[in-house]
């Protein structure tokens, strides 16, 4: 039990970790025609929608934007755009896409009168699907009063015109596409419309309107500049007149003829006087010093030692005479005595020269006093004159400053006036000169083929996408469908061996499959499938044959009773077989074999109300014995768990070679678990592609938990025609000598599936 449970868990773990691309391919093959049908349906639907769409044509014109424009004004800020910069071209592209251009195109072509640009035209041209969706939306809004309703208001004629213009403008902007060509000054103007000729007209109109708009803007700016210059000139003229008047009044008030150079002369004169004052001050200082020395009370000899005295030429001459006289007295004194006439005469001469020197010194001292007084007077006079000249110079400087300010004001106003006057003349003369910044390089022509929709591309894309969507849905459905449909599913998902599979047989929905179907020669494949199951069980337990075989399933209507009956038929061909119905809650054997409702059976045997011979029924066609459920008891599980049931089963094993036990489903009740304790093996029936693998695994695990062996799984109601297409069971049947071809050829008469 533990080894089998571990094997089952390991198989599930391996299955969860391994990506089987072959399984995905089998899924696609299984749903192939559904995928193709979905793709064809969607493609046809898309094709119908695409074919109903009105073709749109795109016409393209080329516009060359000049990098430099002729300047009619030297005041660059009148326009304010530098055409040599990258931003200039980007600005022009945005202008081309602007609402202003679109509005002028609407006016130029009178598009508000064009029905294709009228509100509601797109809705009238919409395809069937769009119309139905729009109608559905309107119906929902009108049917639900709590939703906001559109109020219908009557518009005036002017309002209606503005509304049409606004809608037409929006349509132009939506249909217009501006595409700059890289590394050039050329821009493509593309316009999309259902009328190819109109598309070309509109594309050319956009370029023309752009050029006209530029010229109008230029003319408008020129007009504004002229107006502004005129207004500015009037103000400048008044300012200039006022400035000139103030300058004239200045000359009259100050009684000046020309002030130019006067301040310079005054400055030179003041500089000369300042130099003279400096020299006079120096002379005065020197005279004052000498004067103070002379009048300090010094003796004649001390005065004679003064540099100013001793260096005087007259004093030096007397000094030389004095030296000569002294020299002669000295020489004569060597020869003569003091009273010698020559000595007396020489000394008299020396005294005379000495007196002359003293007189000369006194004369010089008197001159120093006179020179000091003269220097003092001169210094005072120069100071007065310099002070007067400084005051005059300050006045002249102030006058000059006022004059310069007035003159500067006049000059500035004159310069501005002249400049503005010149600009005004230039603007007036060149105002009519129209120089566009762009020109049409290539005019748009009506296109030969529509630009959209790309019907072939859309249809092909729809087919490819719908195929992919179909594959996705198939894989999703397969992932959501947890049923068991193949041998691989049994082995991987359930971890069980495949004992056999029972093909689906066509029959009426109102009736169950005939209980004698096994003996019908027309259904050879069904009979062979049951025999294959019999052989699998015999080979599986060849060393220790299973006498009692329990047949159960997870849920009702998986065909366990059909499998039990036909397995009993197959084994009855080789040995003595008993078929027992232990499903005491919903018994089916009595009904299948057309036995009366009062037929005693298993419940009666266990309860001891009837004998074995009264409860046994022998099927004449197959030769098997069967015991139906009998009277339905109130406590079926207690009855099946009783010692009486165990003793009965032990007795029956001695009477029959094989006992086939048809039990209740495992998920409904636990009767099958109870009955399995008296059985040798368990055969688990699974309806193909129906019951969840988790539900089946849960049922199987219940047997494993109580320590009972499950021999394997029988996959019931397998559609071999689909299996042949998908290759799911290739080799499983063929090795036993029958295949889906035989099955298909023998079951064409049927039309409905087994329920």
What does this structure look like?
There is one protein chain. By secondary structure, this protein is an alpha/beta fold. The protein has three domains: 11-223 and 443-460, no CATH class; 262-430, Helix Hairpins (Orthogonal Bundle), CATH 1.10.287; 482-746, P-loop containing nucleotide triphosphate hydrolases (Rossmann fold, 3-Layer(aba) Sandwich), CATH 3.40.50.300. The protein contains 27 helices and twelve strands. It has helices spanning 2-17, 21-30, 32-52, 86-96, 99-109, 121-125, 128-143, 157-175, 196-254, 262-294, 300-304, 307-310, 313-335, 341-430, 455-480, 487-493, 524-540, 560-572, 589-592, 602-607, 612-615, 636-640, 643-655, 671-676, 693-705, 720-726, 740-746, and strands at residues 57-65, 176-180, 186-193, 438-442, 498-503, 548-553, 577-581, 617-618, 625-627, 658-662, 681-687, 712-718. The longest helix is centred in the middle third of the chain and has 90 residues, at 341-430. It is elongated and about 220 Å long. The two termini are 34 Å apart.
- Give the overall silhouette: elongated
The CATH topology label of the largest domain is Rossmann fold
Let me know the CATH homologous superfamily of the largest domain. P-loop containing nucleotide triphosphate hydrolases
- Which spans of ≥5 residues are poorly predicted at pLDDT below 50? 1-5, 70-81, 733-755
